[in-house]
């Protein structure tokens, strides 16, 4: 069985998290108070990029799922913690996607 | 409406194409006759990477959907043409995903 | 001769541009008036990512140097135009790196 | 001082390693005995991609240098070990770049 078939749930979760983080990044840059969102913009990019990276790596059969998922889980948790500080819908949705993704990542880390 | 909401079908297709290309890459490297698959391995990586790139770029609201999709369409077509030369299931499935993705990319290019 | 040896100057320029854009992104997020820098933050990320992508693609012998460089040139020009609006040192330096990179990209596009 | 200024040596080493791995990947796919190089092709891509990822992440001021460098060091070591099995110039040069990069990564991990 190939790596990407073993990790269907993780792949879906990573994908949703990448989308939620990039959406939150985009929306934060359109907010009136961008300064308040600076940390969120930064962590959204970090989280979107590592989720996208891990997703692609799993589908190509990387032997480093555990190592990468461990880093990804930490970044997802930090991003969730940052997003939870803000009431915007995009932040709240992003926080949920990050929490879920951190949990899935920990299962394989 | 945000960019990623305008491009739901394209995003799904890019995602499936990225997965199919990376799966094909992985499977080609496990074939008995790897030499015959060398061009396929190479184009699979090119295609998986640009599809993943464009997918991520759309979700962050890139203003360059058309330009990137134009390049992506060309790479998808080349990857489809290469995969169609081979009878392996992973190649045939990858070719289909690439053809579909090329079509979706052309709609926005 | 391999692709990365034919493109030494382009590779150096892409690399400097990626660094300048990511540095500018980082510095913009630390400015007092982040809102004024929102477009710059966004275009810095777009430009850094495509420059890094093209750089990596050239070193792996991609057959798509011309197509990717054409998109990259456009993004570099847009990023330069945005950065030139701002007096911050990081913006001015980024604008220069982007102008130079756009020129190098056009040579192969 | 910004993150990318603290990590000049690491950035250079990551960059050289990314280039060496992608060059080795490209050259392996052109060898007569591609099958013998299958593991090398795979690990070259893994290593090139994580080195490029970390390099870009450092220049944008990522707070995750240590975590990412730890994963990168492991992948560099595995890639070096694989490349050292082969006499091709590109493999030997890649192995050296990977060993050096693993050392630099460990300093910050």
Automatic annotation (TrEMBL), chains A, B, C, D:
InterPro entries, per the entry: Csp_YhjQ, YHJQ-like
Superkingdom, natural source: Bacteria
Pfam families in alphabetical order: Csp (PF03860)
Name the record gives this protein: Four-helix bundle copper-binding protein
Organism: Salimicrobium flavidum
High-level lineage: Bacteria, Bacillati, Bacillota, Bacilli, Bacillales
């Amino acid at each position: 069985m190939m790596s990407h078939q073993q990790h269907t749930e993780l792949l879906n979760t990573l994908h949703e998290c990448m989308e939620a983080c990039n959406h939150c990044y985009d929306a934060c840059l359109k907010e009136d108070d961008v300064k308040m969102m600076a940390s969120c913009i930064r962590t959204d990019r970090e989280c979107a990029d590592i989720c996208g990276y891990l997703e692609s790596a799993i589908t190509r059969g990387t032997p480093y799922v555990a190592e990468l998922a461990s880093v990804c889980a930490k970044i997802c948790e930090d991003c969730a913690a940052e997003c939870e500080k803000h009431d915007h819908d995009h932040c709240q949705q992003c926080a949920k996607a990050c929490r879920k993704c951190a949990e899935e990542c920990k299962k394989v880390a």
